[in-house]
Amino acid sequence: GSKKATEPKRSKGTCDIKLRDLPAYRTREGNIMGKLTKAEIKAHNRAKDLLSLDRDLTQDEIFQVIDGWHEGASHSNAAHSAFFTPYELAMHLALEAPGRGRILDLCSGIGILSLAIRMHNEQTPGDIEFTLVELNSDYCDVARKLLPDATVIC
Fold first, then answer.
1. Which of 4, 6, 13, 129 has the most CB within a 10 Å radius?
2. H or E element: which one contains 103?
3. How far apart are CA 139 and CA 77, in angstroms?
4. Do β-strands 128-133 and 101-106 pair in parallel, antiparallel, or remain unpaired?
């Protein structure tokens, strides 16, 4: 008789196709990226243009970067458990931060928490010394632009 090919056993709920195997989800550099809408792509590109300016950003431009720069545009954040704190939440946390001294922001991403603390205390600039530590060099570049007075360790 004929032998029927047996498939390997899979756990319930598993899938043979992995996101990393789909070319549509890879950047030119081979990084896995999130799928963005046209509006998100436009906002992200505008934020990238602002980040490339050869000067400090205005407060309005900083907010455009915060709103438009998408951390998943060229990186697989889920693979690295990298999820950014929403700015509104960061501002609530800034209420509890000291108004002077040193702030060490570990796993800082693009520096949203430190930025919120700096903006909350903008009446006393220079009274807080920020040190941000981040693994992702692209995030570090954004943090350096958003917080030019901070020390960013990458």
1. 129
2. strand 101-106
3. 11
4. parallel
Query: Which of 31, 42, 89, 90 has the alpha carbon at shortest distance from 68?
Result: 42
With b meaning 16 or more CB within 10 Å and e meaning fewer, what string describes 58-84? eeebbebbbebbbbbbbbbbeeeebeb
Between 133 and 88, residue with greater pLDDT: 133
Return the pLDDT at 25: 43
Per-residue pLDDT band for 75 (boundaries 50, 70, 90) equals: low
DSSP code, position 53:
S
As a whole number of angstroms, the distance between CA 20 and CA 26 comes to: 7
User: What's the per-residue H, E or C state across 127-143?
Assistant: CEEEEEECCCHHHHHHH
